Amino acid sequence: MNRDATQLGPTRGGAAGPTKDASLPPPDDEPPSACQRSALNVEVNNRQDALPVDVDALATAVREVLWQAGIRRADVSLAVVDNAEIRIHNARYLQHDYATDTLSFLLEHRGDYLEGQLIVSVEMAAQQAGKYGWQADDELMLYVIHAALHLVGYDDHAPEDAAEMRRQEQR
């Protein structure tokens, strides 16, 4: 799969995925309650009209990734854009003058608090989905999960890190 998600800012990680911060609670396999979800603020801004998107499902996916990583308080923005807009951000922040699937920007991470920005391309999802035999909204959901995993410290540059990230994406 074409995965060019990038995390800006400090990363936690090693060959087997992110290192555990001793100040974080252990990952919880139970989904967060409504009260707990309210501390995981995820704002979705759908800035395209090529594909209808379920903004609530996308926000829930980000919250699940955060929760599984031990993040208990967060402010995350998720922009759903077209290829033209993601290309602008990719060129501006990473000096890559081409459209990509996802961008992740970690702004702050202290203890169990995280602030970040995610950008995903609906057009790229629609283009890539056919290659894998699924729907564009499924590919878009994968992009959102992938970008959120970058926020919590997963990397996919080395093969062993990429394999761990794929395992996390399938959870």
Give a quick set of tags describing it.
alpha/beta, five-stranded mixed sheet, 6 helices, about 40% helix, globular, disordered N terminus
| Alpha-beta content class | alpha/beta
What does the overall shape look like?
A: globular
Order of SSEs: EHEHEHEEHHH
Mean pLDDT: 80
Separation of the first and last Cα atoms? 18 Å
Parts with pLDDT < 50 across at least 5 consecutive residues: 1-27
Instruction: Give the helix tally.
Output: 6
Number of strand elements: 5
Proportion of strand residues: 15-25%
Architecture overview:
The chain has 171 residues and is α/β, with parallel strands linked by helices. It has six helices and five strands; from the N terminus they run E-H-E-H-E-H-E-E-H-H-H. The chain has helices at residues 34-38, 55-68, 83-94, 122-132, 136-151, 159-169, and strands at 7-8, 40-46, 73-81, 102-110, 113-121. A five-stranded mixed sheet has the order 1-4-5-3-2. Helix 2 (55-68) runs parallel beside helix 5 (136-151) and helix 4 (122-132) packs across helix 5 (136-151). The longest helix is centred in the last third of the chain and has 16 residues, at 136-151. The radius of gyration is 15 Å and the shape is globular. 37% of the residues are buried.
